Amino acid sequence: MPSRSNDPVAQVLQRAAAGILDAVVAVAAANPVVLIDGRAGAGKSTLARIVAANWPLAGRPQLIALDSLYPGWDGLDAGVERALHDILRPHARGLLSTWRRWDWEQETEAEASAVTPALGVILEGCGALNPATARIADVRVWVESPEAPRKRRAFERDGDGFRPHWDRWAVQEQRHIDRDDPRALADITITVP
User: Fold this and answer.
1) Contact between 142 and 38 (Cβ < 8 Å)
2) CATH class of this structure's domain 8-191
3) Helix %, strand %, coil % for the chain, to 5?
4) Residue 86: closest CA among 124, 67, 113, 106
5) What per-residue confidence (pLDDT) applies to 1?
């Protein structure tokens, strides 16, 4: 999976994805759980998509973004708790489960999606890696990046929708980092320029 891009971010993410895929194979399970955590704009979603697109096991992994679970701009912890309760714990027990997408425009829960225990799960988003989730994950990833490029990437991706909420979201991210120390829980740490 060599990168043909001259973009240093793309190159780092391609190399990181290769390492994650090697770790997935090393787990020797048909349905491993991969957690990808990091602050806004660090590259988590792009990395998760690369890993999903190159999944080395039979069946497609279930790629779930915590952005789909956070109940609004003050909901980092609540979204992670929903992921743990509705996705990760049932998957670990071999149970079929469902989770409901958060509709950001309507500010309410929307359609439900099923999670089958027969397939792997990639859960990405800030807060994904904490002591409770780490215990039931197979591959734990922390993505870091300096604030200025993260902010630029986040605003390029989300535009003015994110701009007024950056500081309020950053407070929740920092609380998660201080409380849960996701970097210390990670098997793989990636630094994105």
Assistant:
1) yes
2) alpha beta
3) 50, 20, 30
4) 113
5) 61
Entry pTM: 0.96
Secondary structure of 91-116 in HEC code, one letter for each residue: HHCCCCEEEEEEECCCCEEEEEEEEC
Q: Tokens at residue 147, please?
A: 């604030």
Structure tokens at 91: 């998957």
What angle do helix axes 76-83 and 166-180 make, rounded to 10 degrees? Answer: 50
Residue 182 phi/psi, 5-degree rounding, is: -60, -30
User: DSSP label at 79?
Assistant: H
At 168 the pLDDT is: 96
Distance CA 38, CA 185 (A): 12
What DSSP letter does each residue of 129-156 carry, written as one string?
Answer: -SHHHHHT-SEEEEEE--HHHHHHHHHH
Length of the chain: 193
Is there a contact between 162 and 46 (Cβ–Cβ < 8 Å)? no
Angstrom distance (rounded) from CA 79 to CA 133: 13
**For 40-52, what is the mean pLDDT?**
97
